[in-house]
Design a protein that fits this description.
Layout (H helix, E strand, L loop, with lengths): L14 H19 L2 H26 L8 H18 L3 H23 L4 H21 L1 H4 L5 E2 L5 H4 L1 H24 L1 H11 L1 H6 L4 H27 L1 E2 L6 H14 L6 H19 L4 H15 L3 H32 L1
Antiparallel strand pairs: 1-2
Amino acid sequence: MPSDSSHSGRPHGFGVPIVLACGALATFVASYLVPPQWVFVLQDIVALGLFAVATNLLVGYGGLVSFGQAVFYGLGAYVMALGWQRYHAPFWLLFVLAPLFGAVAAAIIGALSLRTREWYFSLLTLAFSQLFFTIANRWYDFTGGDNGVFGPMIPSTLAVPRHGLWFVLAVSFIALLLLWIITVSPFGLTLRAIRENPQRVEAIGVDLRRHELYAFILSGAFCALAGTLFVVHDQSAFPGLFQWTQSGEPILMAMIGGMNHFLGPFVGAIIFIVAHNYLVANAASAWELILGIVLVLIVLFAPDGLLGLWSGRASGSHRLSRLRGVLAGRRSAKRVR
């Protein structure tokens, strides 16, 4: 699968939009071919793939390891669910408002968290995640507590599994294109430079904290958008969506697919969800152990993820063919002489 970035992170044309378009078309066709239960699996993959890519804007491109992105994912879901239950607001209004709520929450949490660095930043975002989890779990009168909110909160058209998949697919396709444009823009390139050498970037006059805050806000908005797609898939919202472990899943997906590749987290989401469903069905008591072992092996033998391993082999084959061409040219020159 092509990637928009090499190990150094340089963009390569329009490979990503082409792959996204082909993937969207393949998923649309698959919706007619796969059994109904797999339509729900595809919805889950696409929504969590967007969540993983949105998280990687902060983690992979910005170098900011956040365990609090579940705050915005859960917030997007709860805006949809509580807006339907408490205020009887229309679905489409809530769908527009949810990313805005995510962006505002990200601006506040980011402004506070970015005062710290490295692991202190990670721990503070984790604390915010647990704070929102506690609020959702304890504020029973408003959030429903541990029971959450369940019900027919989406239009009847989207409740049809195939139609719901098409909607999730269309929204994710547009969102991923926007995220890709952000990553290859001057702002995205500045984020990569900050990740690689913040001292040097600051020395040339770049405001590090402002760029990191913008990245935090953008990531929060897209994570909240992914939360709205979870509602389309599950028609529910519950406190577990705020758990820090929910924040860990997109990071695991990015590690599996490759943090230095735009599509890496999405590839990781496909592998993670398919493997999770298979292991739960066939090895329910040991699926976490097996998945942990696989993750350790990936970290040891493919630290740049599976896409990094694939692109490394491809570039190695390309270098080998070039070397053979050079050697063949030298032999021909010697014969002419």
